[in-house]
Amino acid sequence: MRERIDFSDVTFRYQEDAPPVLKDVDFFIDKGEWVAIIGHNGSGKSTIAKLMNGLLFAESGDVSVDGSVIHTDNVWEIRKKVGMVFQNPDNQFVGTTVRDDIAFGMENHGVPREVMLEKVAEVLRDVQMESYEEHEPHRLSGGQKQRVAIAGVLAVAPDYMVLDEATAMLDPKGRQDILETVREVQEHSDLTLITITHDLREIVAADRVIVMNEGEVWFEGTPREVFAHKDALSTIGLDVPFVAKLTQEMKKHGISFDREPLNHEEMVEELWNLHSTK
Amino acid sequence: MELTFNEVTFIYSPGTPFEFKALEDLSMHVPSGSYTAVIGHTGSGKSTLIQHVNALLQPTEGSVQVGDFVMEAGKKNKNLRSLREKTGIVFQYPEHQLFEETVEKDIAFGPKNFGVEQKEIEERVTNALEAVQLTEDVREKSPFDLSGGQMRRVAIAGVLAMKPKVLVLDEPTAGLDPRGQKEMMEMFYTLHEREGLTTVLVTHSMEDALTYADDVVILNDGKKFMEGKPLEVFKRKEELKQVQLDVPEVLEFLEKVEKRTGISINYEKQPIAELAKELAFRLERRDDYE
Question: In what residue span(s) does the ABC transporter domain sit (chain B) (predicted)?
Fold first, then answer.
């Protein structure tokens, strides 16, 4: 059995008489990977997230986690494996203190108290919020709230963590902090990350990108491969990084690059090489 | 309509343990018909500032002037109604404030409250729908059956139906996808130009400030940290770093290019295609470098 999340020919609609939001969607995410799922609003991204841990069920086709197809009987097992962080940090708190809030998920999964206390401290360290155990979640900043939400998910030790536009409501600094936190956590564990996002930085940081359009998988590849399709991406309403745009435009003027640059540093090096070999 | 803040200080819950100074000695002037971007981090005082524009908050010290309406610390405000008629504020996630059964009723709610005549209201609804680029067929629909982006447009149409002279936008593109963001910013800019509005944009996006604003004000800890023309302000990279703000990506990139290759390109808001051409040309020619 492969350890992975597998979508095979998944179709889904919210209402019987409505058109499907997902049409024969087929992809997998291997354990340990970081996959970004992108697409404009209404392309079906968030529906995918909700199918991954049994908040929604496929109309036809199967969604399976580590070989088990998700259905109503095993949904609690699945949710232990697949954790979710949503967009609006205010909608996901239940505890009156940060500690209680993080403990809530573990209580639901029947973790003994001593283990729980230790775990709370550990996950708060992971998200750099260790001095906030006694704080009220509602009084934290947006970025801090999302870090607590992430800690709450980590506490249950899932194999897969889905971030559904989890940084969309944060300011640029808050976004960057979350991204770094997540990256660090992933580095010292074999957590699989699935980020559903519009944020270009988040996309560039991923190992692989799945591009959704009108309920179908439109493209799959590395960030470099995806952003090489600048014009096609913009026709489906997506943005590409500044560097990718500039690269494409420079090609029109006969400049060729050894490899598609993805960030400033790579681009500046390419320019330097071109400049010095002239 | 011009907008002036004179040494405004605002303190939340003064005299209590929760006392918090959100604005301190803030002065700024927004000329009539101009487009000003206010930038700052969460907690820098941006939201407090905009709530002064239509007197939802009153300064603890100092005064705020909007057109000929003056609001001073410690003085009771008269004629708030006419101030609020002229200042439209689009708050964050304005679609959360929709409540009526139909799009039409929701847009008409404001003008109706201000006693505008029915015939005039209908006209305004039509114009507001057109201004936010929604089609007539949404008129009778429930706003809650629309997509997120359309709902936001309905909420904005409700503000526009008041025919404001000053339009304050608090992060109007938050949560939209990239295409939605661009369309929304273009829409506001068109309105700004066409209606001769005085626009204040509260944003985190340096790119938007650079693209659309005539002037930029940077707030930090409730104080004005910098102000000026966008290109001038964004040249002061080190100072911006002190308040954890980045310069727009294009400026940062061009600086790196210059450092590494010696090719210096003067940025004057030229589009990417033109930048690419200039860069390609300079690479080929090698110019006077070396």
Answer: 3-246
Q: Block means of pLDDT (10 residues each) for chain A, length 278 residues?
A: 91 90 96 93 88 94 95 92 87 86 87 91 90 89 87 91 88 83 85 92 92 94 91 86 91 88 92 81
Q: Which residues, numbered 135 to 194 in chain B, qualify as contacts with chain A under a Cβ-Cβ cut-off of 8 Å?
A: 147-149, 174-180
Which domain range does residue B256 map to? 248-290
Query: Is B242 among the domain residues?
Result: no
* B254 inside domain: yes
Torsion over CA: B229, B214, B91, B61 (sign): positive
Instruction: State the Cα–Cα distance between residues B205 and B169, nearest whole angstrom.
Output: 13
Going by C-alpha positions, the residue among B38, B35, B55 that lies closest to residue B46 is: B38
Architecture of domain A4-240 in this structure: 3-Layer(aba) Sandwich (3.40)
Cβ separation B273–A271 shorter than 8 A: no
Residues 6+ apart with CB under 8 A from A232: none
Domain tally, chain B: 1
Sites in chain B below the pLDDT cut of 70:
286-290
Question: B277 to chain A: which residues are within 8 Å by CB?
Answer: 249, 253
Of A198, A275, A278, the CB nearest to B177: A198
Which of chain A's residues have a Cβ under 8 Å away from the Cβ of B150? none
The pTM of this model reads: 0.83
Identify the pLDDT of residue B175. 79
